[in-house]
Every structure is written in C-alpha cells, then in structure tokens.
C-alpha cells in the first residue's frame, strides 16, 4: 500500500496492518509461554513433527485464517439475509420448516457467492476456450459468481430456490486450494440463519434495495444492511 499525502486511506491501512501483525506477534509469544487447547497453540508447538513453522510463516498463517475466516462468513450472513428479504416467500418457507436450513444454506452460498473470485491459478498448458487460448503460464482468475450462475449447470440459475436438489456450487472454490474453513463456515451459517429467523420473525429491509451500497473488493460485501425487526 502506497502512503502519500493524497492517499490518507493508505496510511490508515498500513498502520492497521502493522497493528494486526503486532497483535499476532504478541499472540504467538503468549501461546508459546502458555499453550492451551486451541489452534494457535497447536501451530506454535512442535507437535512431534520434524518441521516447525518459522515466525514469518506463523504470522502469515494466523493472518490468513483470521482474514479468510471473518469477512467471508460475514458476507454469507449479510448477503444471504438480503437474498431472503428480497424473496419473502422463501423466507416464510424457511421460517415454517427449519429442516430446510442446510439446503437453503447451500443455495445462499451459490446465489450470493460471498467470495467472487477463486485464488490465483496459472495455466499448466495451453487451454483453448471459446475461440481464445489461455496460454501455458498465464495467470487465471476464475469468477465464482459466473460459475455459480451457469445455466448449463443450474436449472433457473438466476432464481433463488432454497429447495434446490442438485447444487454443486463452487462458492468455496475447487481442487487442492478449496476452502479449508468450509465446514466451519457451514456450521456458522446454519446457526446464524436458524437464530436470526427464530429471534426476528418480522425482519424487514429498512431502505429500498437500490439504496444499498457495495464494497469494491474481490469479496461481494455490502457496506451496511439496515433492517427493522
Ligand atoms: C462463507 C464463508 C467462506 C467462503 C465463501 C470461503 C471461500 C473461499 C474461497 C473461494 C477460497 C479459494 C478457493 C480456491 O481458490 O479454490 C477460500 C480459501 C481459503 N479459505 Fe475460505 N471461505 C469461507 C470461510 C472460511 C473460514 C471460516 C476459514 C477459516 C477459519 C477460511 C479459510 C480459508 C483458507 C485458509 C483458504 C486458503 C486455502 C488454500 O489456499 O489452500 N475460509 N475460501
């Protein structure tokens, strides 16, 4: 991030980043001194394995887990809530029959694609595609939103259907780098939607949908979601 007089936000981001790295350093020292039954303690300890992670590797792993595990799930919950508010008949169906929650969660993952792009890949060989060629060595960014709305894969792909039977979405990516936190995210999502629908049965949007604004990041994230309940 470049910090300059005409980029005050850069300055804020840099200092926030520095504070976050320092937080991680302190956390690692604490867990080294007093290990507990938690993930960071597990990472800092040798655990009988030959190789341990260097401090740099530890910081980046913890950093990745916190970042990758926070905004993503937040987007699933906020985008999913918006999708349900925009489809009151589906929200009503879910309120009447909470056993639909697991299938509904998969559909909300597909329909809202909380992470819009998969991580970077490089082509191992020339790949002809739609009259173009992705050359060996080219960087490839796959749009998960596009894949999740592919009409060749999903019947009525533009529709939200919480009872969708075959739902092989790629909201968590695919292959060797598929999201390591997917089981946790699914659990968090199921708990969040079950609780939200039970506790706030009269949830409504407090603004017109066209007044909602979105952040411009590789995530699909709302700046805020004003509701009444
Ligand atoms: C709704 C929530 C989530 C969504 C939609 C999501 C989505 C994704 C996607 C699309 C990728 C890239 C996969 C690829 O390139 O093939 C990814 C990677 C990753 N995710 Fe998630 N994620 C979520 C929650 C989480 C949580 C809760 C954690 C951890 C606590 C997590 C940790 C990671 C990590 C560490 C990677 C990198 C994996 C690798 O490169 O091998 N994610 N996630």
Automatic annotation (TrEMBL):
One of its GO terms (molecular function) is heme binding. InterPro entries: Cyt_P450, Cyt_P450_B, Cyt_P450_CS, Cyt_P450_sf. The keyword Heme applies. Belongs to the cytochrome P450 family. This is Cytochrome P450. Pfam families: p450. It comes from Dictyobacter vulcani. SUPFAM superfamilies: Cytochrome P450. Keywords: Heme, Iron, Metal-binding, Monooxygenase, Oxidoreductase. The lineage of its organism: Bacteria, Bacillati, Chloroflexota, Ktedonobacteria, Ktedonobacterales.
């Amino acid at each position: 991030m470049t910090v300059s007089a005409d980029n005050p936000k850069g300055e804020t981001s840099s200092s926030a980043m520095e504070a976050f790295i320092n937080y991680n350093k302190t956390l690692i020292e604490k867990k080294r001194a007093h290990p507990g039954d938690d993930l960071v303690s597990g990472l800092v300890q040798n655990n009988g394995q030959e190789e341990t992670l260097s401090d740099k590797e530890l910081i980046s792993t913890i950093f990745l887990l916190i970042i990758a595990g926070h905004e993503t799930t937040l987007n699933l919950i906020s985008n999913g809530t918006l999708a349900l508010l925009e489809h009151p008949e589906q929200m009503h169906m879910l309120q009447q029959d909470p056993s639909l929650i697991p299938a509904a969660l998969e559909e909300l993952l597909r329909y809202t694609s909380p992470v819009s792009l998969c991580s970077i890949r490089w082509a191992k060989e020339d790949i002809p595609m739609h009259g173009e060629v992705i050359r060996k060595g080219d960087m490839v960014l796959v749009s998960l939103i596009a894949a999740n709305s592919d009409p060749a894969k999903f019947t009525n792909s533009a529709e939200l259907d919480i009872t969708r039977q075959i739902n092989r979405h790629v909201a968590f990516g695919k292959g060797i780098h598929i999201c390591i936190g997917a089981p946790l995210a699914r659990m968090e999502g199921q708990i969040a939607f079950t609780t939200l629908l039970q506790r706030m049965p009269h949830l409504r949007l407090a603004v017109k949908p066209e007044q909602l604004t979105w952040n411009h990041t590789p995530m699909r994230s709302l700046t805020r979601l004003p509701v009444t309940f």
